[in-house]
Amino acid sequence: MAMEYYRPTTIKEALQLYQQLSYAGKNPAYMSGGTEIVTLSRFHLFQAASLIDLTHIPETRVHDVDGNHLVLGASLTLNEISEKNGFPLLAVTASRVADHTTRNHITLGGNISGKIIYKEAILPLLVSDSLLLIASFEGLKTVPIHAVFHKEPHLSPGEWVVQVLTEKNAVDRPFFSVKKRKIDVIDYPLLTLTAIKVDGKLRVAISGLCDFPFRSVAMEQVLNDPSRPVSARIIEALKVIPGDVRNDWIASAEYRRFVLQTTLEEMYAALGGM
Ligand SMILES: Cc1cc2nc3c(=O)[nH]c(=O)nc-3n(C[C@H](O)[C@H](O)[C@H](O)COP(=O)(O)OP(=O)(O)OC[C@H]3O[C@@H](n4cnc5c(N)ncnc54)[C@H](O)[C@@H]3O)c2cc1C
Q1: Relative to the CA of 190, which of 5, 179, 225, 261 has its CA 20 to 30 Å away?
Q2: pLDDT in tens, 50-93
Q3: Structural domains of the chain in order of their starting residue, each with its CATH number
């Protein structure tokens, strides 16, 4: 059976389509850049009978400052975000995802909402305590990213991300962002680490280490513990990784832990200890 394609131009229309297609048994899914949907479909790992393309809804294309927040629409592509550079940490981190041609299609909303585990664009949002504007059948709601994202996004059926809001004073903080690959070409990350310093304390988010991107309270407590030297903090941080370290075709768990250790040393060199 051919997949049906819909292109709503309002938030309300997208939600109504989702409801109607669900009732009609047409198993709808939202779509933004389509890169993951195409990739997973090739391996029969993505099942939907109908697609609702969100990229023609004006609110999802916004790149603007509104009051105290930088507002980024979920349909902005990673290249658009990098070129506009309104959020330098996000711009740099996004610029290392995939290759330039693919980044013309990958969107902010798709990267943070997808099934593929890396989701590198979420790291700057986690350390900046960004908010998500979510469209739901009850209306629009603005929620902290930490309320929605634990290992993966937890959205109810039919809900979707319209925008990401980040406080203006959070987007210009000094930052550290590095992507380590197995070999220095375009690839999924062995480890991607982003960090900022707020009120003298480091905030750190990591992708590629575990099966999910994360920002860990326990790890930040250790990394910010002024009673220990930096070298001891790093050793302690390795003990509180919030999941199993990946052991795969890119690298062994042992090597990933070693890379985390050296990357944390680089982070302290860049941002300073306390
Ligand atoms: C060759 C290649 C290399 C890549 N390398 C990397 C890499 O190194 N690091 C990395 O992090 N990523 C990488 N990616 C990107 C990643 O794997 C996904 O393909 C991409 O992030 C999906 O974005 P998209 O806009 O195309 O989403 P889509 O394919 O359109 O959607 C992906 C999923 O998100 C859902 N979705 C889309 N938009 C929304 C929304 N606004 N609200 C709620 N749900 C939504 C869809 O229903 C679907 O389930 C790579 C992709 C490719 C093709």
Answers
A1: 225
A2: 999 999 999 999 999 999 999 999 999 999 999 999 999 999 99
A3: 4-53 (3.30.43), 58-171 (3.30.465.10), 175-271 (3.30.390.50)
